[in-house]
């Protein structure tokens, strides 16, 4: 049973219950617009990753600004997107298991569905599931371009899989996925440029091998918020999968641009609000948001508007702020905004987005409450 | 909207969709029985922490074996427990904010409710909320016994709060909470013994100060799975709050007993099952369970039954297993059981428990599917 929402449209920000996921709607909309402009200028398509926001409402806003559909990482996420009105979903991930494949194939009756593979056995199982359901599923071959996770080697191994896909009546060969996850968080622009240059060599080489085998490669897809400008300008990518750009987390803000300044193309638009629930000593303020309200895999959250306050350590339901060096120390009951270290797993901990208009104004108000509809979509 | 369950009673374990939270019912029931025996022998009460399991079904099983009620960390968790039929709940945490206090007071109409405080302003707000609702709420004073989180100093500061509680018609002074969270994970028995000995000095000192002020101290509550035997034998604790003992995670299993062997009073009864979704290179198997299916704050999960396999690094929906040194390397589609590093935040990522009977047998079967009813109960 999902939790009751922490707010109602019209509420003042100060009255939103905590911990809650707060969206600064003004910054969020500017972020959506900036990305739409960037991909339009570059002449590439945007298929934003919905594994980050898990919300068909947000996906439809992205599509209204030109995105061609969304990416998902799980079949159950894709189901939520299709139920929410999105007609074109790429599951940018390998899908293994008969139950998942049957669900994926069933979804292809309602929407344009594609999926990625990196193994011949997957192609056979997918072809059988699609044939049983009487549908056609698009398939892209994932190549490992440096992420060292999934994906076959670029070149001949990818061609062999593409040929096998092309030989299946229930499948449609849609192209290549070349996503370099680790490159997104390389801190210097030079490192990211070198990584994506290497990705492009792999993609060109694989496209040439496909052409030699007589196979067209309709789409090359990849990229994230940290590198999307490089893939967009590469001439070899057709679609970009960036997701975090909507919200920008503390970790992406640690990336540097080529002039050495911090990456600020997008604004922080996602916050977790927390209440000071205990002030047992002058130097410590305890917040009501810990491991169950925030993700810590990319470091602790940053505090907004309290110079010197450092989120020191989480426990399950608590966060200890060190306020030793603060001039104005937070008081019991104060509400504080935190910028999550990593937005994707933070969003997945919450049932609701609370959309706030005028966050920077003196009268921030709740405008909307959206479900995190695909939260917990693990399958 | 919660996800569909990954299994149906009667299913074979091999057919449970992944990633899923698997309970070894046999080990779980043995763990419940061992704790019930231990507290009965020691002559103390058990009030297990439901922040760990978030399930009234499990809470009722604990009560059936003698527990006096459950602890919760959040008001919204307590609501789920009361809705599920539990009649006695201690919110073992400070509650700040008028919305939360109104919900807490409303709950006291349906069940015996208590809460902890560490500040005079909390007592005033709680008394007002209880008076408005026309209920009596039990209140315990939290003292900081070394956790360096919430709680007033032992001694006079605690007595002042107790006096204030005793002076409010809508509140009932129930005693002291003295929980040393950090002591739970001290690795050697000597360190844990020293930490809890110090806790007991603080508690005795505070109880004496309360007696001097003419205040009875009905209950001293605290303890966790790592130290419960010490508090049970101390003569100063009346109630134990241990929660993880039901499931035992990888982190608790790193504690040592006084003879130097690993802490094995309880068995691992909680697992996350995962599927091998990609085997791109001989030395790597990629699982479909990452940051959104497992908590990593206490280290990565351990694999069951694949000697040499090491869960190396998670990403949002993937886990890379290094299988270099495995004799029998996992194959695409294999299902693997993982022991979570930390059970509490892992449980909170899932909508369903899949209870399996005969996990160690050749025919493990799903016996029950229980909702993680208070998952996401943040408020």
What does this structure look like?
The structure is a homodimer of 379-residue chains. With 379 residues, the first copy, chain A, is α/β, with parallel strands linked by helices. The first copy, chain A, is 29% helix and 22% strand. Chain A contains 10 helices and 17 strands. In chain A, the strands form 2 sheets. In chain A, strands 1, 10, 11, 12, 13, 14, 15, 16 and 17 form a 9-stranded mixed β-sheet that branches. In chain A, strands 2-9-8-7-6-5-4-3 form an 8-stranded parallel β-sheet.
| CATH-defined topology of the largest domain in chain A | TIM Barrel
Beta-strand residue fraction of chain A: 15-25%
The tally of strands of chain A reads 17
Secondary-structure element order of chain A, N to C: EHEHHEHEHEHEHEHEHEEEEEEEHEE
Primary descriptors:
globular; TIM Barrel; 379 residues; homodimer; Lyase, Ornithine Decarboxylase, Chain A, domain 1; 22% strand; alpha/beta; nine-stranded mixed sheet
Give a summary of the structure in a few sentences.
Chain A has helices at 25-42, 50-53, 56-64, 75-83, 98-107, 120-133, 156-166, 189-212, 228-233, 343-347, and strands at 20-24, 45-46, 70-72, 88-91, 112-117, 137-142, 171-177, 219-222, 239-240, 270-281, 284-287, 302-303, 310-314, 319-322, 335-339, 352-357, 365-371. By secondary structure, chain A is an alpha/beta fold.
């Amino acid at each position: 049973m999902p939790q009751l929402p922490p707010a109602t449209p019209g509420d003042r920000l100060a009255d939103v219950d905590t911990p809650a996921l707060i969206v600064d709607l003004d910054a969020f909309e500017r972020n959506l617009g900036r990305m739409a402009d960037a991909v339009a200028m570059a002449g590439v398509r945007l298929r934003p990753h919905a594994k980050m926001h898990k919300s068909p409402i947000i996906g439809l806003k992205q599509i209204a600004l030109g995105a061609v559909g969304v990416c998902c990482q799980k079949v159950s996420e894709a189901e939520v997107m299709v139920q929410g009105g999105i007609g074109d979903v790429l599951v940018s991930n390998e899908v293994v298991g008969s139950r998942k494949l049957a669900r994926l194939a069933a979804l292809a009756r309602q929407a344009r569905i594609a999926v990625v593979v990196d193994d011949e056995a997957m192609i056979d199982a997918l072809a059988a599931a699609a044939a049983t359901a009487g549908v056609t599923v698009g398939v892209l071959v994932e190549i490992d371009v440096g992420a060292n996770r999934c994906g076959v080697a670029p070149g001949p191994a990818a061609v062999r899989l593409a040929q096998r896909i092309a030989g299946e009546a229930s499948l449609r060969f849609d192209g290549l996925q070349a996503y370099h996850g680790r490159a997104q968080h390389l801190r210097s622009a030079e490192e990211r440029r070198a990584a994506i240059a290497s990705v492009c060599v792999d993609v060109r080489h694989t496209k040439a091998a496909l052409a030699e085998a007589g196979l067209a490669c309709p789409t090359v897809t990849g990229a994230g918020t940290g590198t999307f400008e490089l893939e967009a300008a590469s001439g070899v990518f057709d679609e970009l999968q960036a997701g975090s750009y909507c919200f920008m987390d503390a970790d992406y803000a640690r990336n540097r641009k080529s002039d050495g300044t911090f990456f600020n193309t997008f604004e922080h638009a996602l916050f977790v609000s927390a209440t000071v629930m205990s002030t047992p000593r002058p130097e410590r303020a305890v917040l009501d948001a810990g491991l169950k309200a925030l993700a810590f895999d990319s470091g602790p959250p940053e505090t907004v508007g309290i110079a010197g306050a450092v989120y020191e350590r989480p426990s399950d339901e608590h966060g200890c702020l060190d306020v030793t060096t603060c001039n104005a120390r937070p008081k019991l009951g104060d509400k504080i905004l935190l910028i999550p270290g990593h937005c994707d797993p933070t969003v997945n901990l919450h049932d609701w987005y609370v959309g706030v208009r005028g966050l920077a104004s003196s009268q921030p108000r709740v405008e909307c409450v959206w479900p995190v509809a695909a939260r917990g979509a693990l399958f």
